[in-house]
Amino acid sequence: MSSKKNKKLTPTQQQYQAFAKAREPKRPVLTNCIKAFFVGGIICTIGQVLQLMFVKYFNFTEVTAGNPTAAVLIIISVLLTSLGVYDHIGQWAGAGTAVPVTGFANTMASAAIEHRSEGYVLGVGGNMFKLSGSVIVYGVFSAFVVALIKITIKALGGI
């Protein structure tokens, strides 16, 4: 706690804060980072294997294999979310499951599943974008800003 907050607390409250802080379990930050690294790496490796399969067996190019690879990863993520498996993996691995495509699909699917009892339009359709809507908005806005910067630099004779 900052010293400003400590000044507003009574001595008893300060003693309790110190008591609680001493007994608070330490977070295993290094272990959590390692778990996130490996699970995120496994998800990305699965994506890379899928992309190589699309290139080798379906005659896609490396560029055109990206879209079906993302679609398969989304389908797998939604399927695992609907079965309740993705949540268990997410609790164990933490941020490792937040790899953009699968984490985004999990967010949308879990919101849709949670509100399905309210109906398809007002429940699923109305609540599906509550969590992921901000990701869409800020993703589109940041892409717009980056495009403006690139166009400006290109017009000035840069890149």
Which key features would you list for this structure?
single chain, 159 residues, mainly alpha, 79% helix, extended
Uncertain runs are none
H/E topology pattern: HHHHHHHH
User: What share of the residues lie within helices?
Assistant: over 70%
Portion in strands: under 5%
- Report the oligomer: single chain
Mean pLDDT: 87
Rg = 23 Å
Major sheet details: none
Describe the structure in your own words.
By secondary structure, the protein is an all-alpha fold. 79% of the residues lie in helices and 0% in strands. It is built from eight helices and no strands. Helix 3 (29-58) packs across helix 4 (66-83), helix 4 (66-83) crosses helix 6 and helix 6 (100-114) packs antiparallel against helix 8.
Describe what is shown at a glance:
The protein is an all-alpha fold.
Detail the topology: elements first, then pairings.
Layout: H1 3-8, H2 11-23, H3 29-58, H4 66-83, H5 85-93, H6 100-114, H7 120-127, H8 129-155
